[in-house]
């Protein structure tokens, strides 16, 4: 198997999947009640775009400790978003289940952090 050298954060599969999740969240929250505009919608979108943004920032950091710090922030935003998805389902704002995407990104981020720690 031939591996492509990762030169840009957009080459990372975890970034690609988290970017897609952010797009999914934007589309999903378009259907939420208007009174949530400055509440749940804003919080979900902020958490969603924080994930790929922190992966992008961490990618450019030079030291392993600094890289991992940004990837940990992405993990925190992912956990926050996971809760917001539970809340929005319990409030009957959505029946969309993005849990499998969240789980996949969690595993990819954990693997990325493990690979940096082992080098």
Total helical elements: 4
User: Which word captures the global form?
Assistant: elongated
Query: Which CATH architecture is right?
Result: Up-down Bundle
The overall average pLDDT, rounded, is 94
Helix content: over 70%
- Here the CATH topology equals de novo design (two linked rop proteins)
Unreliable segments of 5+ consecutive residues? none
Determine the structural class based on helices, strands and strand pairing.
mainly alpha
The total strand number stands at 0
What is the terminal-to-terminal distance? 22 Å
Q: How many distinct domains? A: 1
Beta-strand residue fraction: under 5%
What's the CATH first level? Mainly Alpha
> If you compute it from the alpha carbons, what radius of gyration comes out, rounded to the nearest whole angstrom?
15 Å
So, the CATH homologous superfamily? 23S rRNA-intervening sequence
Question: What is this structure's SSE topology?
Answer:
Blueprint (H helix, E strand, L loop, with lengths): L12 H17 L10 H21 L3 H27 L8 H19 L2
Q: What's this entry about, in short?
A:
The protein has 119 residues and is mainly alpha-helical. It has a single domain (12-117), classed as 23S rRNA-intervening sequence (de novo design (two linked rop proteins), Up-down Bundle), CATH 1.20.1440.60.
Describe the structure.
The chain contains four helices and no strands. It is an all-alpha fold. Helix 1 runs antiparallel to helix 4, helix 2 packs antiparallel against helix 3 and helix 3 runs antiparallel to helix 4. The protein is elongated and about 45 Å long. The mean pLDDT is 94.
């Amino acid at each position: 198997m031939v591996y492509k050298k990762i030169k840009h954060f957009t080459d990372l599969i975890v970034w690609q999947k988290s970017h897609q999740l952010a797009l999914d969240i934007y589309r999903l929250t378009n259907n939420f009640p208007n009174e949530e505009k400055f509440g749940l919608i804003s919080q979900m979108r902020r958490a969603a775009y924080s994930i790929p943004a922190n992966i992008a920032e961490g990618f450019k950091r030079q030291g392993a400790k600094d890289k991992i710090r940004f990837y940990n922030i992405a993990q925190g935003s992912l956990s926050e978003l996971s809760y917001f998805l539970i809340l929005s389902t319990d409030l009957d704002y959505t029946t969309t289940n993005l849990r499998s995407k969240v789980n996949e990104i969690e595993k990819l981020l954990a693997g990325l952090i493990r690979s940096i720690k082992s080098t």
